[in-house]
Amino acid sequence: MKKILIANRGEIALRVMRSCREMGIKTVAVFSEADRHAPFVRYADEAVCIGPPPSSKSYLNGEKIIAVCKELGADGIHPGYGFLSENADFARMVKEAGITFVGPSPEAMEMMGDKLSAKAAARKFKIPMVPGSEGSISDVEEGKKIALQTGFPLLIKASAGGGGKGMRIVERIDDFAEQMKLAVSEATSAFGDGSVFIEKYVTGPRHIEIQVMADTHGNIVYLFERECSVQRRHQKVIEEAPSCVLSPELRKQMGECAVDVARSCHYTGAGTVEFLLDENRNFYFLEMNTRLQVEHPVTEMITGIDLVKEQVRVAQGEKLSFTQDDLKINGHAVEVRVYAEDPANNFLPDIGKLTTYRRPQGTGIRVDDGFEEGMDIPIYYDPMIAKLIAHGKDREEAISRMLRAISEYQITGVETTLDFCRFVLEHQAFTSGDFDTHFVKNHFSPEKLASVKPDEAEIAAILAAGLLSGQKNKVSVNQSVNTENRSRWKTNRIEPC
Description:
Elements: E1 3-6, H1 10-22, E2 26-32, H2 39-43, E3 46-51, H3 62-71, E4 76-78, H4 88-96, E5 100-101, H5 106-113, H6 115-123, H7 140-150, E6 154-158, E7 168-170, H8 176-191, E8 196-200, E9 206-214, E10 220-232, E11 235-241, H9 248-264, E12 269-277, E13 283-289, H10 296-303, H11 307-315, E14 332-339, E15 341-342, E16 348-349, E17 352-353, E18 356-358, E19 365-369, E20 376-377, E21 384-392, H12 395-408, E22 410-412, H13 418-426, H14 428-432, H15 439-443, H16 446-450, H17 456-468
Parallel strand pairs: 1-2, 1-4, 2-3, 4-5
Antiparallel strand pairs: 6-7, 6-8, 9-10, 9-12, 10-11, 11-14, 12-13, 14-21, 15-16, 17-20, 18-22, 19-21
């Protein structure tokens, strides 16, 4: 391929373009009116506006994207993640248009996109499953029988989609009927598919996912695991690789199971197989994500493999450039997602202008972002500003580098999750490795962020410095003023007297 259109925006579009440029492949950006001045638009060799800000009129307009691809003579389309990345119909349209889709086949997407069909495929390879129903449940009375067999607590989950939508925890049989109706209603509203199933609720679970890569020649490898247990609203906030609780034997066992899951659907390209790990180190297949993951950089940092380049090579029909025996774990990597959200207000998204935006630098630090100082955070898309990644020789060094990087990251104008991420990284449960997906519920409250504030003298010094410098406009107080003492605070911009 000589030219690839990136059907996405922001940091992932920019990240894919950089790998393409290193491969000598030209890139095409498609963008909405809200992203006209975004860095990824300027970076691409060619760029085309495809519609108004709402994603339904721009980034989800598959027909328009394919038309641009044809018009500019692009050989392939890379979907990034989100938007159309796991849309089997779009992948099929791309293929039928004679364009290469940088991802798995539509058939593999369909099989793994439905949790029930994914479980059925994996079950043929004897992959461990969470106890529960083997198929979808539509009748409440039938569901009650399965619920009693499964035991409480249990989960009612939507077969299609994810992100916690269409999911209900049921503690007792008296609540089952109501919770099932709510799950079906939410699943129908969110995904257009009300199918639900039942599975045992694993208490104290860890979320472990395995990165796999497969080519069209039958080669499938696993690139070790990522620990993704620190979540809010069933969505990840902090990821690391490798997990600090897997033994080499368990890592190998889970990796080989992930390869079998990929084999069950004839998978090609980069994918992620997700597992739950209980307190007794038993693991259960959860689902497969048929795309590049947001957290893929931590895998790249510990393996030295550029996953985007491998995706492109596989899409071109080439064999994987490495074997399972070639892969080794090099050190430890941690990623925090920097969201424009307010942790003190139930992580509600925030919008505004990035009045101050200064990235951290230094050894072992990587920032994947799509914003610059002065840009607005749009209301139309996911509120992630950046992914901050730290790599070290071991977990302790990776965490210490991340804390240093967070102290150097200067963002004002919007609330962010940086202070929350620092709270997690400094918490004894995280540093000891004794945590699970309930970390936020068990250990975090807004008051714990507010408890660490700078003293009045520090505030006065900052304001005085701004006023003495002759600034006539707003004085911005950086998120991390005293990097040595790691002040964990920020204030609103203050008008000088």
